[in-house]
Structure formats: C-alpha cells, structure tokens
Specification:
Blueprint: H1 14-21, E1 40-45, H2 49-63, E2 67-72, H3 74-84, E3 89-93, H4 96-103, E4 107-116, E5 118-123, E6 143-146, H5 152-163, H6 168-174, E7 179-180, H7 183-191, E8 197-201, H8 202-206, E9 212-216, E10 229-231, E11 237-239, E12 243-250, H9 256-266, H10 269-277, E13 286-290, E14 293-294
Parallel strand pairs: 1-2, 1-3, 6-7, 6-8
Antiparallel strand pairs: 3-12, 4-12, 4-13, 5-8, 5-9, 10-11, 13-14
Helix pairs in contact: 1-3
C-alpha cells in the first residue's frame, strides 16, 4: 500500500481544492436538458454517498423516479457545478452550501438534514488503550489525520487539540503524522491494522464499526459554535459551527419539481432516521434557503 504523507504547511482555501481537482470529475453536457424519463443527477460528497444511495433507492421504489448519484469531494463537486452548470441536486457538508448560494448563486432551495461529528477510531479491541486525544501524543502511537489543507476536518484539528490542552503545532514538530485528504482512507488504515488510530467523521467510522472501535470526543473538545474560528489562506476568518450535511436544488435543473420532491424527502423526518442509521448526528431538519434567499435563524 502506498502511503501518502504530508506535513502541515498552513491552511488553504477549501475552494482551491475543488478547483484543483474538478478536472477529474465525470463531465456532463453544458446545461441540464433532461427528459422526464432520464434520472435526476444528484452530486453527493463522498462521506454522504452510502446514505444517499439508500435514500435514492427508497425514493425510486416509491415514486418511480430514479436518482443517479455522482460522487466526489464536496469542494470538487461545487467546482464542477459552477463550471458545467449540470445536475439537479447537490448534497455536501459545510461550508459549501453557503458558497453555492451566496457566492455562486447556483442553488434554489436548501436544507440541513444532518450533522457530522469527529471521532477517534482505533484498532478493534483497542490494543493501545487509547481513551482520548492525549493518548495519541506518544511516538509509539501511529496516528493518521485528514489533510490539514484539503479537508474540512483538517481545518478543525488545531482547535480540537487545543481544547484538549495539546499544542497542535508542537505535536507536529515532535511527531511525524501522516495525512490523507480522505477520512475514509485514514479510517480504513486503522480498520486494516496499518495504523493505531485516526480522526474521522462519525458516519465514516460507523460504516467500519465491525472492524474497529470508536471513541467519541467529549463535547468540551469540540469547536464551540459562534466562538471558535479558523483562518483561510486568504486571511479571512470564519466561525466554526456544527458541520452540517445539506441538500440543495440547483438552478440549472430542468426538472426542478422532481428535484424538489426528492430534496423534501431527504429533508423529511423519515429520512432523518436513515441518516441516524448510517451514523450521522441528527438534531433536526431545517430549511436554510428558499428560492436562493437565506432564511432567518
């Protein structure tokens, strides 16, 4: 297995990731000219792909409307939508819904449907007796993290470790910590016993729960909404919030009625139970945008 290793070079814009990798996407013709009998196209961030495949299956069984999942990183997908103006729906995690709506004006309606929460994953049986973040510091623990520049969780790590009383910059000076842009990759390394521990989203860990152990982070180690911030490469600081999972209908869709019906199903109480079954944090569905306009809290 070829291990990709990178060291922290400072945070960078998540949008830059999307632009850099957009060329790897499956391309669609410009515009969204789709016949009624063709499937809807739903662009889905990789972490949400398994649950969205299940929801698409249920929706098709009950309505006859097929939803085709096009999956990649949330940032890559946003770059693809902006460039090609193709697709009917977009499922992503923060901060990309607000970018879709406020920066690029490409969305119509948008909902928060679940949240992502970071957790520690360790080998099954927890042979290193890891109970929390401080147990990840010793050199004897092979720790993998998501890339500090190319992942949403990576941008949050300095704050998370600081809240546990750990100087993240010094930790990286004292210890070589390999990283990868994908949380699924680092979790799989632990699952296959090629690493002792990693941090990833709860939904990623849940899919591998039979082959590894999951250690929740205490609430006091998670970013405080409205208080904790990170700074992008442009120097712009933004406030950390619970990492929302969202769905939006796209302006370029020529089947907005069908797209909205699927989005409303994904934003239903019934679908919320499916998100929980797939390991997502669920604290209630909320409509965030109506006809491109942000709704008041």
């Amino acid at each position: 297995m070829r291990m990709l290793r990178s060291r922290r070079r400072g945070p960078a814009s998540l949008w830059a990731l999307g632009l850099g990798l957009a060329s790897a996407m499956v391309l669609f013709p410009a515009g969204c000219r789709r016949a009624r009998d063709e499937p809807l196209t739903c662009h889905v961030g990789g972490t949400m792909r398994p649950v969205m495949q299940e929801l698409a299956r249920i929706h098709q069984k009950e309505t006859g409307v097929k939803v085709e999942i096009n999956s990649a990183g949330s940032g890559e997908l946003l770059a693809h939508i902006e460039s090609h103006k193709a697709g009917d729906l977009y499922v992503c995690h923060d901060p990309f819904l607000d970018m879709l709506m406020q920066k690029f004006h490409l969305g119509v309606d948008g909902w928060t449907v679940a949240e992502l929460t970071p957790v520690i994953v360790v080998q099954k049986g927890n042979p290193k007796k890891i109970r929390g973040l401080k147990d990840l510091v010793p050199a004897s623990v092979e720790l993998w993290l998501t890339d500090y520049e190319k992942s949403t969780l990576g941008h949050m790590l300095k704050t998370i470790f600081a809240k546990a009383g750990i100087d993240f910059d010094k930790l990286n000076e004292d210890k070589t910590i390999p990283t990868h842009k994908g949380g699924a990759h680092v979790a799989t390394l632990v699952q296959t016993r090629n690493a002792d521990a990693a941090l990833c989203w709860n939904a990623v860990a849940h899919l591998r729960r039979k082959d590894l152990d999951i250690i929740p982070l205490p609430a006091e180690h998670l970013p405080t909404p409205g208080v904790d911030t990170v700074t992008s490469a442009t120097g712009k600081a933004y406030t950390l919030t619970p990492v929302r999972v969202t769905i939006a209908t796209l302006k370029c869709s020529r089947r907005l009625d069908d797209a909205k019906k699927f989005a409303e199903f994904v934003a239903s109480d019934r679908a919320a139970k499916v998100f929980q079954e797939f390991g997502f944090t669920q604290i209630g569905v909320k409509k965030e945008y109506d006809n491109g306009r942000a709704l008041k809290p």
